[in-house]
Design goal:
elongated; alpha+beta; SH3 type barrels; 2 domains; 9 strands; five-stranded antiparallel beta sheet; 34% strand; single chain; 158 residues; Alpha-Beta Plaits
């Protein structure tokens, strides 16, 4: 028995109809027993869905489905990886950035990052909302980046 070769295809759809198209393709694949391994949509990429199938299975699945515009082409798993695997917030944090603390006793406070500990996944921040700058160390997951230091400096110089 020869294993079938499945490729991942990008399919362009009408905006805000991606989930509906995914459901229609999945239902059609189930009912007609088409060569489709998976079908999914990534929220960060509007107007596109991805179908893992043979080309014939894909063509049979999308025929006469409303809101399907066209098949863009094959996509490699390497290209999709950056969309599917989220980067940890700690990798995006740098000293000098302005952040907002989103939980804990300092929730809602703005702060400037003074140091980042990748090993411990912690950041040391100086609270900006207080008259006296107080350095505190918090877990990286409870901060949200507002802006970088260079953006703040360019606003104040204008």
């Amino acid at each position: 028995m020869v294993a079938k070769r499945y490729d991942i295809y990008a399919v362009k759809t009408t905006t805000n109809r991606e989930k509906m198209v995914v459901e229609q393709i999945a239902n059609r694949a189930r009912l007609k027993n088409l060569d489709i391994a998976s079908v999914f949509h990534v929220d960060s990429l509007p107007q596109y869905i991805f179908v893992e199938s043979t080309r014939k299975g894909l063509d049979d699945a999308i025929t006469d489905i409303n809101h399907v515009k066209n098949v863009v082409g094959r996509v490699t798993l390497k290209e999709l990886e950056q969309l599917l695997v989220p980067k940890p917030i700690i990798q995006q944090l740098k000293p000098g950035q302005i952040v907002e603390i989103v939980s804990g006793p300092f929730r809602g406070s703005r702060a400037r990052i003074s140091s980042v500990s990748l090993a411990r996944e912690e950041v040391t921040v100086d609270l900006l909302d207080n008259p006296v700058t107080i350095p505190i160390t918090v877990h990286a997951d409870i901060v949200r980046i507002i802006s970088s230091e260079t953006e703040i400096e360019s606003e104040s110089s204008e």
